[in-house]
Amino acid sequence: MTLLTDSDKRHFEELGLLLLKGFYDVPNQIEPILEGIRRIVEILCRKYHVEAPTHTAHHAMTEAFMALIQRDRAHGGEIYDAVKQIPEFMQLVSDVRNSSLFRELREGSIPGLAAGGYGIRIDCPGEATFKAPWHQEFPAQLRSLDGIVYWTPLVTIRPSLGPVEVCVGSHREGIVPVLSPAESAQKGAYALRLVGEAERLARYQHQSPLTEPGDLLMMDFLTLHQSGENVDVFPRWSIQFRYFNFANPLGVKIGWKGSFAGGQDFRAILAEAGVAI
Ligand SMILES: O=C(O)CCC(=O)C(=O)O
Ligand SMILES: [Fe+2]
User: 19, 45, 188, 190: which one has the fewest Cβ atoms less than 10 Å from its Cβ?
Assistant: First the structure.
């Protein structure tokens, strides 16, 4: 199976990102996930006696979701935890074509699917709490240095929804040092703040790709990116998962351990393996 052209591969290698329009089959791969979400939202509207339309996935993911979180923000957390257990979501995450893409972009690799590295983000309007600040995926996920983020939207991403913002070509910088936890106000993966952030970001052209369901955005584990700001009235629903390379020497050295997803801080794991970053 060959999915990419030489020009796609060169593009990814040089820029650290690649957008594949219409990569997934919308009726067969995306719509069943939307229907799964619709049913979960419908059940929760009934459970919490929230009057809201759930007869289509669109209604459930917009009006009904907003009505539920306006009643109680914790209902949004319940949905967030539930939707990543929709079987059709896991089928998309483990689609054989994802491994093929990885093998084409990482020659000689043995693809792995990062445990705990997959989910469905629901970025709510005007909410900064769960917004991912500028980061590289490697410290947040580990597994292997040459991993790739797969990002695919469940709704059409218009500018007001806050598309992911990427620093083009920033992966070439290698691992960027981050501030120590004591210097950062937040916890876990969200606490990782880049050293010299402003100067670093200014060196690159920024892109915020507009995508629609079926499109796949791939990012190198070292590409700098952040969540856009959702200034819309509806949530931004998107899928993300990560593949890594079992054959990567640094991955082998750290035993393919995960970072925060594995309940550990990357500093301890890299230090144990004698890797200085
Ligand atoms: O969707 C977002 O806002 C952030 C995505 C991200 O950081 C990722 O998928 O690795
Ligand atoms: Fe990320």
Answer: 188
**Average pLDDT score over residue span 148-159:** 98
Q: Taking residues 1-19, what's their average pLDDT? A: 97
Q: What residues line ligand 1, using a CB cutoff of 6 Å?
A: 121, 123, 132, 137, 149, 151, 164, 225, 227, 238, 240
pLDDT, residue 264, reads 78
Residue 127 corresponds to which tokens in the numbers above?
């909410």
- Last residue within a domain, chosen from 40, 65, 94: 94
Residue bearing the CA closest to ligand 1, atom 5: 227
Q: What is the distance in A from the centroid of ligand 2 to the CA of 135?
A: 6
Q: Which residues pair with 240 in a beta bridge?
A: 119, 151
**How many other C-beta atoms lie within 10 A of the C-beta of residue 169?**
17
Q: Which domain holds residue 208?
A: 7-24+96-272
Q: Which atom of ligand 1 is nearest to the CA of 135?
A: 7
**What's the pLDDT tens digit per position in 92-121?**
999 999 999 999 999 999 999 999 999 999
CA of 219 to the centre of ligand 1 (A): 10
pTM of the model: 0.96
Q: Which ligand is nearest to the CA of 149?
A: 1
Give yes or no: residues 58 and 47 share one domain.
yes
Ligand nearest to the CA of 136: 2
What DSSP string describes 98-153? HHHHHHHHSTT--EEE-TT--EEEEE-TT--TT---SB-HHHHHBS-TT-EEEEEE
Query: So what's the pLDDT on residue 189?
Result: 67
Give the Å distance between the CA of 52 and the centre of ligand 1.
29
Question: Which is the closest atom of ligand 1 to the Cα of 227?
Answer: 3
Number of domains in the chain: 2
